[in-house]
UniProtKB/TrEMBL annotation:
<feature type="transmembrane region" description="Helical">
    <location>
        <begin position="180"/>
        <end position="200"/>
    </location>
</feature>
<protein>
    <recommendedName>
        <fullName>Solute carrier family 66 member 2</fullName>
    </recommendedName>
</protein>
<feature type="transmembrane region" description="Helical">
    <location>
        <begin position="49"/>
        <end position="69"/>
    </location>
</feature>
<feature type="transmembrane region" description="Helical">
    <location>
        <begin position="154"/>
        <end position="174"/>
    </location>
</feature>
<dbReference type="InterPro" id="IPR006603">
    <property type="entry name" value="PQ-loop_rpt"/>
</dbReference>
<dbReference type="GO" id="GO:0005829">
    <property type="term" value="C:cytosol"/>
</dbReference>
<feature type="transmembrane region" description="Helical">
    <location>
        <begin position="16"/>
        <end position="37"/>
    </location>
</feature>
<dbReference type="GO" id="GO:0045332">
    <property type="term" value="P:phospholipid translocation"/>
</dbReference>
<keyword id="KW-1133">Transmembrane helix</keyword>
<feature type="transmembrane region" description="Helical">
    <location>
        <begin position="75"/>
        <end position="98"/>
    </location>
</feature>
<dbReference type="Pfam" id="PF04193">
    <property type="entry name" value="PQ-loop"/>
</dbReference>
<feature type="transmembrane region" description="Helical">
    <location>
        <begin position="212"/>
        <end position="232"/>
    </location>
</feature>
<dbReference type="InterPro" id="IPR052241">
    <property type="entry name" value="SLC66/Scramblase_ANY1"/>
</dbReference>
<dbReference type="GO" id="GO:0005802">
    <property type="term" value="C:trans-Golgi network"/>
</dbReference>
<keyword id="KW-0677">Repeat</keyword>
<dbReference type="GO" id="GO:0005768">
    <property type="term" value="C:endosome"/>
</dbReference>
<dbReference type="GO" id="GO:0016020">
    <property type="term" value="C:membrane"/>
</dbReference>
Amino acid sequence: MDWIISDELGLTVGHLVGWGAASAMIVGGVAPYIPQYRQIKKTQDADGFSLYVCLTLLVANTLRILFWFGKRYELPLLIQSIVMNATMFAMIHLCVTIRKKNQIIRARERIFTAQPDETANWLGQQSGFVGGEKPHRFYDMDKKYFWAWTDFQSYVDCMLVFSVLGAAITYLLIEFSPFVELIGFLAVFTEAMLGAPQIAKNLQNKSTEGMSVCMVIMWTFGDLFKTAYFVIREAPTQFWVCGSLQVLLDIVILLQVWMYRHNTAAARRIRRGD
């Protein structure tokens, strides 16, 4: 009788631990962006945060969702990808809104999809366009402005195009195992490179000001937990290998925080004796 109770208790504890770990995977991925979101909203300054971080995660998690259809992995990882995409769109919306609000002089609008607007109407008038349908400003193919559009809808449209194309190709090649494995690798490798845009942004600014250090610390602990989760749960090899790379990039960003610790507004005020 004792061994039956022991087995039932062990099963219950095992389930609780499993559910706790799964919940941590879903919520833990989003948690690091809460302090960054709050900091941007409080300071009304989005210049220290790289929107390419959002691009990296949107691409990675969209690929991971497609990978699920070819090779079923644990459901919490799929849910995490969906939740993360929603979170990244929330970050983009905040950053785009604040950057438009902070513009002293209205710059030329950069958009992904074609739509009529005042700038195009003005250009049409200058070129002698009279009456009829409003002229359209078409896809802005200048790579300098890719993922630097001035309206939120452009980011949504871009990811919709990427998702539809990816889904169509995956549907056609779903039975081709090397292709499915390639999607899985690209998904986790892209996510592993998450810190690279922020590293580049910090190098460009020679400062980590505007970037939430709390976010990076949470990245690091979250990626350590995630990598351990992949190993323990025997997730596909791509997951834990690229998870280890992600931890390494997190450490590089923390080193940048230490290197550029004197290149902040507060540090400059102290040096000036303000």
